[in-house]
Amino acid sequence: MPDQDINQDINQDTDNRDHRTDHGSHGTGKAGPDRRTTVAVITRDRPESALRTLDRLAALPERPPVVVVDNGSDDAVTAALRGHPVRAEVLSPPGNTGALGRNLAVRHASTPYVAFSDDDSWWRPGALSRAADLLDTHPRLGLLAARSLVGPEEAEDPLNALLADSPLPTAADLPGRSVLGFLGCACVVRRRAYLDAGGYHPLLFFGAEETLLAYDLAAAGWGVAYEPSVVAHHHPDPGGRPGRSVRLRRNALLTAWLRRPVNVALRHTGRLAASAVSGEAGAMTALREALVRAPEALRRRRRLPPRVERDVRLLEQRAARARPHAPGATGAHPIARPQGEGRR
Q: Taking CA atoms, which of 50, 96, 138, 221 is between 20 and 30 Å from 83?
């Protein structure tokens, strides 16, 4: 199980770091330094990819501050990260923090906004200024989901279309489309909102952890919106991702027990159990891992407010119509996606 101290620490962070940075010129529409947004990068044992990402961030016209959470690399890699010209603040926790590394990065940021990158992703020039302008203009906006372009060919990530077609009602005080999902390496958060919602949950570690964060932001009254004018680039490793499907199914079930009505959680449990009994690949492992974590999930259980539960059900209904016979479905809505694998 992941170390939960980092998650507890961010909830004790009540300083005003948001306002202590000289943000530079912004809001003029001109390219140039704009330090309203820190870029948080998580990496683990992928020095070439991480250094390439830092190269891209160093070339941005915004010249953003950068925080790197080095999740277990050797001393030589850590030294290379610290020696990069981008002059990132490199944090080296004692072990692999999983998604909680993002919580650590947000806690160390001294800007009002934080953009997340993996060690295989970066931001289009001007995207961070555009995101900061939108966050400045819409004070209830807690998380801005960006458009993600994949690989050298800049293919549209399939998630972009799902987010753009969100069935959730449009909010007059938010930009773009209201959503309850996002890609973890292509989003910008309001630091105060992220801390208010508790950040990424320690029980999930990795795999579809974005869904629970989106739920918690919405439950706390913050808006989550997709805005395609803000663009991130993602160049994932073409190799396989061992264990990913198990983590996704395990965490979809844990999310149901953490936030959904009991009858919904029981239904999701029954579906995964049926898949496990039928011998579906990975289902038994996912169920076993979820059951080990179930007592902690019940201790931390906090039901969503009715308005958020209604939105989740609307998304699930859309998913059921689109994929009525999807094998092994656990009830997760269609805009819950894992983050990139580079920081695992």
A: 96
Angle at the Cα of 105 (from 48 to 258), degrees rounded to 5?
A: 110
Ordered by start, the domain boundaries in the chain are 5-234
Q: Is 231 left (phi over 0), alpha (psi -120 to 50) or beta?
A: beta
Element (H, E) at 104: helix 100-108
CATH code that applies to domain 5-234 = 3.90.550.60
Contact 249, 328 (CB under 8 A): yes
Best CA proximity match to 327, nearest among 288, 254, 286, 278: 278
Tell me what pLDDT residue 31 has: 61
What's the mean pLDDT in 110-124? 97
| Residues 224/147, Cβ–Cβ less than 8 Å | no
Contact 46, 342 (CB under 8 A): yes
pTM of the model: 0.87
Query: 122 has which bridge partners?
Result: 233
Q: What is 240-280 written as a DSSP string?
A: --TTHHHHHHHHHHHHHHHHS-HHHHHHHHHHHHHHHHTT-
Q: Determine the Cα–Cα distance for residues 164 and 299; give it in Å rounded to an integer.
A: 36
Both structure tokens of 92: 């080296």
